[in-house]
Design a protein that fits this description.
The chain is of the alpha/beta class and 266 residues long. 23% of the residues lie in helices and 28% in strands. It contains seven helices and eleven strands. The strands form two sheets. It has a nine-stranded mixed β-sheet, sandwiched between helices. A two-stranded antiparallel ribbon has the order 9-10. Strand 9 (187-197) and strand 10 form a beta hairpin. The longest helix is centred in the first third of the chain and has 12 residues, at 75-86. The radius of gyration is 21 Å and the shape is globular.
């Protein structure tokens, strides 16, 4: 299987190295490496860039080793240039992560890790985003890498077109973690902004660490992780309208010179 790995923490991320080591250690019956692993990841950390893409300037690649490239662009850029400029064909699966920190609930909107997985899914490629839902400098990725490596084919079988699989799990070396289906929860971010007036006439605004409020839900990914489980969600990639679809094709407000109940002609 040809696997493309990427992330938003950068090419030197411990979580990325952990995935490479775990997937690369898998062997077939002849003792040969089971998977062909490629890495195209941002040259620097690109957390919080969501699905941003580089459009007005070139994206630069630098070869860092066999099947290993750093990219000047975003995580979504990495998926695009990997397929069109490095592999020259679609991989069998794209795995984005392991992210340093959670991508739970509303985090998914902002996440560069999930942005890369979403881009792969838009290209029709099975896609998995993986995040270690803990904070700190010395995270343990063994539990998540073991889960992904030992269940990779099963995870790909769970994937559906127009979606990506979002996985969050605890920081642990335990290799017998249980995974549960969960809905992405709802987060409310209470941000903190610090501003300073510079001598150059600009006001410099820094988004400082705030806090989050999570809507209680026993079926949410937040709750599953808090109970020590791996949370797995199948996330739709296309926007979904909330208005009554029975209204489609009708005017929102009565148009001038038209009778009430008129519809758009198709």
């Amino acid at each position: 299987m040809r696997i493309l790995l990427t992330n938003d923490d950068g090419i030197q991320s411990d979580g990325l190295f952990a995935l490479v080591d775990s997937l690369g250690s898998l062997k077939n019956d002849r003792g040969e490496q089971l998977h062909e692993i490629w890495v195209v990841a941002p040259e620097h950390e690109r957390s919080g860039v969501s699905h941003a893409m580089t459009l007005k300037k070139p994206t630069k690649l630098r070869k860092q080793g066999e099947h290993r490239y750093s990219c000047s662009g975003t995580p979504a850029d990495c998926v695009i240039v990997a397929g069109l400029g490095v592999l020259h064909e679609a991989p069998d699966v794209v795995i984005s992560g392991i992210n340093k920190g959670p991508n739970l609930g509303t985090d998914i909107i902002y996440s560069g890790t999930c942005g890369a997985a979403r881009q792969a899914a838009l290209e029709g490629i099975p896609a998995i985003a993986v995040s270690c839902a803990s904070f700190g400098d010395n995270l343990e990725y063994g539990g998540l890498t073991s889960f992904v490596a030992s269940n990779l084919e099963k995870l790909i079988a769970l994937w559906k077109p127009d979606s990506f699989i979002n996985i969050n799990g605890p920081s642990t070396s335990c290799t017998d973690l249980c995974a549960v289906w969960a809905n992405p929860g709802k987060n409310r971010y209470l941000d903190n902004l610090k501003c300073f007036d510079g001598a150059d006439g600009y006001t410099y605004c820094f988004l400082a660490e705030g806090r989050q409020e999570r809507t209680p839900d026993i079926y949410s990914d937040h709750h599953a992780v808090s109970q020590g489980f791996i949370a797995l969600s199948l996330v739709e990639i296309h926007p979904r309208a909330l208005h009554d679809t029975a209204l489609n094709g009708t005017f929102v407000f009565e148009a001038p010179n038209l009778h009430s109940g008129s519809e758009v002609k198709h």
